[in-house]
C-alpha cells in the first residue's frame, strides 16, 4: 500500500508540474484522479452535513486547487498540499453552515491509501458548475481543462487565436471561482433542484 501511495504521489506531482506548465491533458487527468480521493475525505469529515453539501465542498476544493495551484512548490510533495487545501475548505464549510469540526490529519490516511475508482458524480458536478458561465466560455473550459484538447485546436474550431483561448480559459476559471465563492453554498446555474 505504501508503494502505491508513493507512486500516486510521484505521478500526481508530475501531472501538476505539467499542468502548471500549460498541459491541459495532464491537468484534466490530475483532476480526474484526485477528485474521488477528495470526495472521500469530504464525505468522511462532513457526515453531519447533508450529502448535497458534500458536493458543494468538493467543488470548492477543486476551484481552490485551480486558483492556488501556483502556491504549490514543485520540489515539494503534492499530497500534503492537496490535503491542506481540502482541510481548509471543509473547515470553511462547517463555519459557513454553523457547525464545528475537528480534522486530525491522521483521519485522512484511510482515504489517501485507497485506489480511486470512477467518479459517478463528476459529469453532473461539471455540468452544474459550467451552467453558471456563458456557453463559449463553458465550451473552452470543457475542451481544454476537462477534455485536454490543445488550445491551438480549440482556437481553430472557435475562430480564435491560441492566445485568445488561453485568456478566455483563464477568465472563465476566475469567473467559476468567483461564482463558487459567492454562492453561499449553492452552485451556479439554474438551481439546486435540477
UniProtKB/TrEMBL annotation:
InterPro entries associated with the record: RNA_pol_sigma-70-like, RNA_pol_sigma-70_dom, RNA_pol_sigma70_r2, RNA_pol_sigma_r2, RNA_pol_sigma_r3/r4-like, WH-like_DNA-bd_sf
Record keywords: DNA-binding, Sigma factor, Transcription, Transcription regulation
Pfam families in alphabetical order: Sigma70_r2
Domain RNA polymerase sigma-70 region: 36-96
Entry annotated with the keyword Transcription: yes
Superkingdom of origin: Bacteria
Gene3D superfamilies tied to this protein: 1.10.1740.10, Winged helix-like DNA-binding domain superfamily/Winged helix DNA-binding domain
Keyword DNA-binding: yes
PANTHER family linked: ECF RNA POLYMERASE SIGMA FACTOR SIGD, RNA POLYMERASE ECF-TYPE SIGMA FACTO
Record family assignment: Belongs to the sigma-70 factor family. ECF subfamily.
Protein name per its UniProtKB record: RNA polymerase sigma factor
Organism: Gemmobacter nanjingensis
Protein's gene: SigD
Amino acid at each position: 500500500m505504501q508503494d502505491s501511495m508513493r507512486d500516486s504521489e510521484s505521478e500526481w506531482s508530475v501531472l501538476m508540474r505539467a499542468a502548471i506548465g500549460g498541459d491541459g491533458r495532464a491537468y484534466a487527468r490530475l483532476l480526474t484522479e484526485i477528485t474521488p480521493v477528495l470526495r472521500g475525505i469530504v464525505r468522511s469529515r462532513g457526515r453531519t452535513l447533508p450529502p448535497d453539501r458534500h458536493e458543494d465542498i468538493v467543488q470548492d476544493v477543486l476551484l481552490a486547487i485551480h486558483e492556488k495551484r501556483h502556491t504549490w512548490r514543485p520540489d515539494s510533495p503534492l499530497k500534503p498540499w492537496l490535503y491542506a487545501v481540502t482541510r481548509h475548505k471543509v473547515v470553511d464549510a462547517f463555519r459557513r453552515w454553523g457547525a464545528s469540526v475537528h480534522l486530525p490529519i491522521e483521519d485522512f490516511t484511510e482515504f489517501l491509501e485507497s485506489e480511486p475508482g470512477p467518479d459517478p458524480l463528476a459529469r453532473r458536478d461539471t455540468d452544474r458548475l459550467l451552467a453558471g458561465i456563458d456557453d463559449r466560455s463553458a465550451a473552452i473550459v470543457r475542451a481544454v481543462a476537462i477534455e485536454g484538447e490543445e488550445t491551438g485546436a480549440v482556437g481553430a474550431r472557435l475562430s480564435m487565436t491560441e492566445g485568445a483561448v488561453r485568456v478566455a480559459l483563464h477568465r472563465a476559471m476566475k469567473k467559476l471561482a468567483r461564482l463558487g465563492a459567492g454562492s453561499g453554498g449553492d452552485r451556479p446555474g439554474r438551481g439546486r433542484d435540477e
